Amino acid sequence: xxxxxxxxxxxxxxxxxxxxxxxxxxxxxxxxxxxxxxxxxxxxxxxxxxxxxxxxxxxxxxxxxxxxxxxxxxxxxxxxxxxxxxxxxxxxxxxxxxxxxxxxxxxxxxxxxxxxxxxxxxxxxxxxxxxxxxxxxxxxxxxxxxxxxxxxxxxxxxxxxxxxxxxxxxxxxxxxxxxxxxxxxxxxxxxxxxxxxxxxxxxxxxxxxxxxxxxxxxxxxxxxxxxxxxxxxxxxxxxxxxxxxxxxxxxxxxxxxxxxxxxxxxxxxxxxxxxxxxxxxxxxxxxxxxxxxxxxxxxxxxxxxxxxxx
Length: 310
Fold this sequence. Notes:
Elements lengths: L1 H39 L2 H27 L13 H30 L6 H23 L6 H30 L4 H28 L9 H9 L6 E11 L2 E9 L5 H19 L3 E7 L11 H9 L1
């Protein structure tokens, strides 16, 4: 356990350092992009700069959340501070959606009256933006598969990579055709991409905060597997939820015969191995029972609340 805790701490420190570097690079490039966007009269560049501003906010919040979640659990926060990262992911995704709405409005105005675009500036700055955004995205990619907080920051940055590629493509076409309306068109595609990413993170964040069952867990199959463990006669009051994306928790009442404490401990250990290896549930609270058990799989809390309301 000590080795695992040290490993997690080292990973967190590494992520914090990489986030700080990404934050510095992104903030420095925003100034360049705003100046170039105004000079070139390009909404695509200004849109990307605005998105980069949200990236700075997102990276700063992600950096803060990682520092907070590294704090140990205490008597007031017995689960620790893991949910801080989920709250930050929710804030990040909400700001993404608001930025997308602003992009759509500005794009509409430019469709009505398309301004002249300095395509050469758009192309040059766009290529530089692709490089900067790709480097910063790769800096925060490690660990984003299992951490929703890091994933929200990574998607912010990858959205920038794709948007700047689109801006460069629009600049090249404008340079040779003079079709200035392509600039706001690219901005609309960028906005749709941002909304798509934002919706995925909002949905997952809300599901975690509502303590929903993880989407990839089939509860019926899970119960069937538990009942296959030697010594298990039944399962009820089952709950499966996530503290964070990579930290899953389960509680359940396990019905057994009238067995000794040592036999019960072996049954618990066998169920724990099954849950960890097959379902990625590392934290399981299993209460063994042998009589007077309710046959319901899930807690009847909703029914009780309904009776109280009436």
